[in-house]
């Protein structure tokens, strides 16, 4: 579980050599790193979605119902097709953002769109994977429900 909080420093003395940027410009200096943060969040979302997809695929090929693996059922296959489309779209968007970053042409808009799309797509992939996993997704070892958090 992520924990976030605000930290405030009052009356902190700092040598000039230890300052990051110039005095009074800290937020602007940190703001320059937001695009990298957005990209890293998008990468994390992709990894989470891929983990859920792979676990659900493994389970669907092992779980037998009505004499065959549930992965052979048409509705389950449709879920996997939609998950694969989302994953492929996420990967392509991440590759494009990485390429732009390497070439110095990435914009804040590019990074924000990548983060936004990957977050939503990851949620949809994990949700579909949870539906395939059924009760195992919530009560199994390990439970997959935290991936939705």
UniProtKB/TrEMBL annotation:
One GO MF term: acyl-CoA dehydrogenase activity
Originating organism: Escherichia coli
SUPFAM superfamilies tied to this protein: Acyl-CoA dehydrogenase C-terminal domain-like (SSF47203)
InterPro entries given in the database record: Acyl-CoA_Oxase/DH_mid-dom_sf, AcylCo_DH-like_C, AcylCo_DH/oxidase_C
CDD domains: ACAD
Cofactor(s) required, per the database record: FAD
Statement: the UniProt record of this protein carries the keyword Ribonucleoprotein: no
Stated family: Belongs to the acyl-CoA dehydrogenase family.
Official protein name in the record: Crotonobetainyl-CoA dehydrogenase
One Pfam family this sequence matches: Acyl-CoA_dh_1
EC code: 1.3.99.-
Keywords: FAD, Flavoprotein, Oxidoreductase
Enzymatic class: oxidoreductase
Record domain Acyl-CoA dehydrogenase/oxidase C-terminal: where: 24-141
């Amino acid at each position: 579980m992520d924990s976030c909080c605000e930290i405030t420093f009052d009356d902190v003395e700092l040598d000039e050599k230890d300052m990051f940027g110039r005095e009074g410009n800290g937020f602007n200096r940190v703001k320059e790193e937001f695009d990298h943060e957005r990209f890293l969040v998008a990468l994390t979302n992709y990894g989470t979605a891929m983990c859920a997809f792979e676990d659900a695929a493994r389970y669907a090929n092992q779980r037998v119902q009505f004499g065959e693996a549930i992965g052979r059922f048409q509705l389950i296959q449709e879920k996997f097709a939609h998950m694969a489309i989302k994953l492929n779209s996420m990967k392509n968007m991440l590759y494009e953002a990485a390429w732009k970053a390497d070439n110095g042409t990435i914009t804040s808009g590019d990074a924000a769109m990548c983060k936004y799309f990957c977050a939503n797509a990851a949620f949809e992939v994990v949700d579909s994977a949870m539906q395939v996993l059924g009760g195992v997704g919530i009560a199994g070892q390990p439970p997959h429900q935290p991936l939705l958090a």
